[in-house]
Amino acid sequence: MSTKHEKILQYIESLPVGDKISVRQIAKDMGVSEGTAYRAIKEAENRSLVSSIERVGTIRIEKKKKENIERLTFAEIVNIVDGQVLGGMNGLHKTLTKFVIGAMQLEDMMRYTEAGSLLIVGNRFKAHENALKEGAAVLITGGFDTTDENKRLADELELPIISSSYDTFTVATLINRAIYDQLIKKDILLIEDIYVPIEETAMLHNHQTIADFKLLNEKTTHGAFPVIGNHKKLVGMITVRDVIGREPTEPIDKVMTKHPISTSMKTSVASAGHRMIWEGIDLLPIVDEDGELQGVISRQDVLKALQHAQRQPHHGETIDDLVKKEIKLISEEDIMVEFIVTPQMTNQFGSISYGAFTTLLSEVGSLALKRKKRGDAVAENMTIYFIKPIQMETVLTIVPHILDMSRKFVKMDFDVFNEHTLVGKAMMMFQLLER
């Protein structure tokens, strides 16, 4: 049986794309309090089912598939550029295919403007009109208005006209950044991309017995199962080890692990895999914010997904990618690395950012451990006890020293030089991952 929260989300998902919704309307339609309706709408926004716009309201938008995640809706554009909707409000749910900057003659501008695109332009009323007739939305920069005729045309064609106080360069930068962020998200595998849904999950109820566990174990050959109670709430996990030496009639809630480790749909696969290795578990239950079981993920699922992801082309680059690209091994025997500080890695003062510096040391440490045939490692903690301002375009030499190594942990010291001058020292603890 679904919870009120889940029922509201299902109701919102069933609404036609483009519909306006409100807390009061949802509360009335579903017979719940406005607080419950508000929380469900916020969750729907997190799931990209709706988009909330100041002075407009909340609009049902189409949930984008992973392969189309970089496409933005006009509703999202309004929020990105802090815009105001002047007309065509009923088209805010639509998705744009590209944007065109109107810094050219009108005839040239129209050659690039097509249906589904967004024309970014100043107070050029004829350009606004022509773009709408071509099937494109309009984003007016500089906080300018448009004519009443263009607003009526936008309403009629259901194509938004948005006004932003930002200049054209700032608007284009903000939209580019949003698309870039979406591309990075597209490359990050989440639990929701690979999990086994509850409909396909073998599970037990807390009122069942060890005999039921053994029957399910024989049928599926699985060694662990989630245990649920009322409303599909996760109440425990039970494994083969838990039932050894137990009587078949014994209730499973007496031997199961209560309050088990679980995770959510939005957790990254890499993070889930690290946690499973660290905690020594092979099956991880997936729950929603109310604790209702959504499905499971196994360690084998995680390994397969990560292996597959490594073979895929990647589009967006994170700071980790940028740092890895600049690392060059110059001495294999003593493990010595050369690194160039690029402008993307600097802070507002033009020096290497703390985040880029810590990522650099973490990557160099992992590289050193792989060269020592110790496999993969995860940084547990770091202490930077000396660092000078390191300017962009500086060439650094990083020398890691292994101070202590056990089966599970490694303590490492780092010396960072610029032309034989010491500019940084740090110590880091790594956890070695099982091979």
TrEMBL record:
<keyword id="KW-0129">CBS domain</keyword>
<dbReference type="InterPro" id="IPR051257">
    <property type="entry name" value="Diverse_CBS-Domain"/>
</dbReference>
<dbReference type="InterPro" id="IPR036388">
    <property type="entry name" value="WH-like_DNA-bd_sf"/>
</dbReference>
<dbReference type="InterPro" id="IPR000644">
    <property type="entry name" value="CBS_dom"/>
</dbReference>
<dbReference type="Pfam" id="PF03061">
    <property type="entry name" value="4HBT"/>
</dbReference>
<dbReference type="InterPro" id="IPR029069">
    <property type="entry name" value="HotDog_dom_sf"/>
</dbReference>
<dbReference type="InterPro" id="IPR036390">
    <property type="entry name" value="WH_DNA-bd_sf"/>
</dbReference>
<feature type="domain" description="CBS">
    <location>
        <begin position="256"/>
        <end position="318"/>
    </location>
</feature>
<dbReference type="Pfam" id="PF00571">
    <property type="entry name" value="CBS"/>
</dbReference>
<protein>
    <recommendedName>
        <fullName>CBS domain-containing protein</fullName>
    </recommendedName>
</protein>
<dbReference type="InterPro" id="IPR010766">
    <property type="entry name" value="DRTGG"/>
</dbReference>
<dbReference type="InterPro" id="IPR028979">
    <property type="entry name" value="Ser_kin/Pase_Hpr-like_N_sf"/>
</dbReference>
<dbReference type="Pfam" id="PF07085">
    <property type="entry name" value="DRTGG"/>
</dbReference>
<dbReference type="InterPro" id="IPR046342">
    <property type="entry name" value="CBS_dom_sf"/>
</dbReference>
<dbReference type="InterPro" id="IPR006683">
    <property type="entry name" value="Thioestr_dom"/>
</dbReference>
